[in-house]
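So, who can interpret the following?
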Amino acid sequence: SKYCRGVPDPKIRIFDCGKKKLPCDEFPAAAHMVCDENQQVTSECLEAARIATNKFMVTNAGRDFFHIRMRPHPYHVLRINKTLSCAGADR
């Protein structure tokens, strides 16, 4: 098809951060981020959320005192319209 020539690789590569070898029962608390609506989230958004959460937890809790697991996997491919980003592209 002329619209989706190939499926690009997802930008998110790491789905587990922090202390991965400990089971979830070892930590005193658990937090879940849940959305009440059906939404389409790109792999770039998942990677940005993982980086921001990991940075916050490392600075506030320490490197070995949390475990982050990204559950959604970017299986659905979202098309983005191609745009020019050179000088004078908006003319």
